[in-house]
């Protein structure tokens, strides 16, 4: 039997490039990592020999690269020679082998994310071990399947996914409930974002049904929400030809169950997904603007266009065209094509994986576009209602992000905008057409008031400094607190006094809350006392040359600081 390629996923991080060779029950594993290439070979559970050789996009540090094996895959993390330089692709040549896909579940913008990556690398082996001993890691079988331009969450490359119509949610996107049978129910865990922002692991069950109405996440597409017998389904993931439904309550295998979908979420995804197909096709047909990736966000969606810039006129023309096609009520159809069907050659896509079997699912907007896609869609563009392009943003290198809303999201956006407009009209006491000018006038007035206030504070600081200097109580420890003021205010006082014999303790802010402090005086004393003052006030600070200043959280403890300073001065006087 001729050797085959192993399905491979990859994603880019600041210092490393991660690759996962998806092979179950692998044997005779060999991984060779060199500065410009990686060679991988093994046998799978059926004894088939697999071989992959990848010439890297850029040079790597082969001596600081590793590979780890689990029951379902072999993962390699390869250290970049030039760190913090993004890789637009894994391969040296600008090609996309059918067996190579981006791991969109892990791909994200990574600016400022080096600590997360380092922790990932250091603990990767331990995590793999924990996953493999408790239960098999989630299958990634769907990651070489599905779509042309489709509405999935993190960045997604159009045309790189294909799948057959396996589930009811794909056969009938408008179905809201149905009855099916439980096939299996196994203990499982789900990692979620907790209320405190930290990761939280939930214990529950993976329920497999004969068929499902709930679309499983995969390749970045958000999963559906819904219930099984009124039990909430917290996550739906694809595992080969099956879908795992995570619930906190077990369901008996063989039992009949009622499945319901969260229709508002489902229809929203259908509108954004079909809207993205339409925008992508129109942008390409009108201006040759190719879609390279896209994101279905919680409030808005973003299409990445392969162009360093897109003009306002082009944006307006695209928006006008897509809305005209919505008003034309163009039908959207889903069909299955066999691999040898001549129509396959006319469909937008990037090829099929080596192990693909069965028909190809194609989504067609009549007269506009045909795309390989596994997602849920409207059956007529009129169900999109309207598309609003909010504008463009600078994307990655030589890319432009097109921000858009479709359907009900446009109505919600208009409702929020109208609510804001009404509130501003009340506050500014003028019509909406005068809001901008009114805000500009307020900004100018505020800047002038701030400038005048600053000048007054400076004059007050000078006056206070002279008063302290001429006070009969001058000497030893001098303490002053004001509710209003800032660091500059305190420094002006210290500058005006200019004494190196007296300890000057200044504070501004809430008397019993947070504020700022400054300690000035003899350099040796300030160096000794400054950190202790910050500790008493439960704050942080720094200093040099006779001054220590910082932020405090417990201004109510100022009297303790004063006692600390008095004790220090008394001790110094006694020693002299």
From TrEMBL:
GO molecular function: alanine-tRNA ligase activity; ATP binding; metal ion binding; nucleic acid binding; Ser-tRNA(Ala) deacylase activity
Entry cofactors: Zn(2+)
Domain CS: 3-91
Coiled-coil residue spans: 432-459
GO process annotations (BP): alanyl-tRNA aminoacylation; prostaglandin biosynthetic process
PROSITE patterns, alphabetized: AA_TRNA_LIGASE_II_ALA (PS50860), CS (PS51203)
UniProt-annotated location(s): Cytoplasm
InterPro entries in alphabetical order: Ala-tRNA-synth_IIc_core, Alanyl-tRNA_Editing_Enzymes, CS_dom, HSP20-like_chaperone, Thr/Ala-tRNA-synth_IIc_edit, Transl_B-barrel_sf, tRNA_SAD
Chain ranges of the Alanyl-transfer RNA synthetases family profile domain: 207-416
Name of protein: Alanyl-tRNA editing protein Aarsd1
Main localisation: cytoplasm
Gene Ontology CC terms, in alphabetical order: cytoplasm
PANTHER family: ALANYL-TRNA EDITING PROTEIN (PTHR43462), ALANYL-TRNA EDITING PROTEIN AARSD1 (PTHR43462:SF1)
Organism per entry: Sciurus carolinensis (Eastern gray squirrel)
Family that this chain belongs to: Belongs to the p23/wos2 family.
């Amino acid at each position: 039997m001729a050797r085959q390629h192993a399905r491979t996923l990859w994603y880019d991080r600041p210092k490393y490039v991660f690759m996962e060779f998806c092979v179950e029950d692998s044997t005779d594993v060999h991984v060779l990592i060199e500065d410009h290439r990686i060679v991988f070979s093994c046998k799978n559970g059926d004894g088939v020999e697999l071989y992959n050789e990848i010439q890297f996009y850029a040079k790597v540090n082969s001596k600081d690269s590793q590979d780890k094996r689990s029951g379902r895959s072999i993962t390699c993390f390869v250290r970049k020679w030039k760190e913090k330089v993004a890789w637009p692709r894994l391969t040296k040549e600008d090609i996309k082998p059918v067996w190579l896909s981006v791991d969109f579940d892990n791909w994200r913008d990574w600016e400022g994310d080096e600590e997360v990556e380092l922790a990932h690398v250091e603990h990767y082996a331990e995590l793999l071990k924990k996953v493999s001993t408790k239960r098999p890691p989630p299958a990634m079988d769907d990651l070489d399947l599905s779509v042309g331009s489709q509405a999935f969450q993190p960045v997604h490359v159009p045309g790189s996914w294909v799948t057959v119509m396996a589930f009811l949610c794909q056969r009938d996107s408008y179905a809201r409930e149905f009855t099916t049978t439980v096939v299996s129910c196994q203990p499982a865990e789900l990692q979620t974002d907790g209320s405190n922002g930290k990761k939280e692991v939930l214990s529950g069950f993976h329920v497999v049904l004969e068929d499902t109405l709930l679309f499983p996440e995969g390749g970045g597409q958000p999963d559906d929400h819904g219930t099984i017998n009124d039990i909430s389904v917290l996550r739906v993931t694809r595992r080969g030809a099956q879908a795992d439904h995570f619930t906190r309550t077990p369901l008996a295998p063989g039992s009949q169950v009622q499945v319901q979908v969260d229709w508002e979420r489902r229809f929203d995804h259908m509108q954004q997904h079909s809207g993205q197909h339409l925008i992508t096709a129109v942008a390409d047909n009108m201006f040759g603007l190719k879609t390279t990736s896209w994101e279905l966000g919680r409030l808005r969606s973003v299409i990445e266009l392969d162009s360093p810039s897109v003009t306002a006129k082009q944006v307006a023309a695209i928006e006008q065209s897509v809305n005209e096609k919505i008003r034309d009520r163009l039908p959207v159809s889903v069909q299955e094509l066999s691999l040898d069907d001549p129509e396959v050659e006319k469909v937008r896509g990037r090829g099929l994986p080596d192990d693909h079997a069965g028909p190809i699912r194609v989504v067609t907007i009549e007269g506009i576009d045909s795309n390989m896609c596994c997602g849920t869609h409207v059956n007529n563009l009129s169900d999109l209602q309207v598309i609003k392009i909010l504008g463009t943003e600078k994307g990655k290198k030589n890319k432009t992000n097109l921000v858009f809303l479709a359907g009900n999201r446009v109505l919600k956006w208009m409702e929020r905008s109208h609510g804001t407009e009404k509130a501003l009209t009340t506050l500014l006491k003028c019509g909406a057409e005068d809001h901008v000018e009114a805000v500009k006038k307020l900004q100018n007035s505020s800047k002038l008031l701030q400038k005048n206030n600053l000048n007054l504070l400076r004059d007050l600081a000078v006056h206070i400094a002279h008063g302290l200097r001429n006070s009969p109580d001058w000497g030893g420890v001098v303490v002053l607190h004001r509710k209003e003021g800032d660091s500059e205010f305190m420094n002006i006082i210290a500058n005006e006094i200019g004494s190196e014999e007296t300890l000057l303790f200044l504070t501004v802010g809430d008397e019993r809350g947070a504020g700022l402090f400054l300690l000035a005086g003899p350099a040796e004393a300030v160096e000794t006392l400054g950190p202790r003052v910050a500790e008493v006030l439960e704050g942080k600070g720094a200093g040099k040359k006779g001054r220590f200043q910082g932020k405090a959280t417990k201004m109510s403890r100022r009297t303790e600081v004063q006692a600390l300073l008095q004790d220090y001065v008394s001790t110094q006087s006694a020693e002299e």
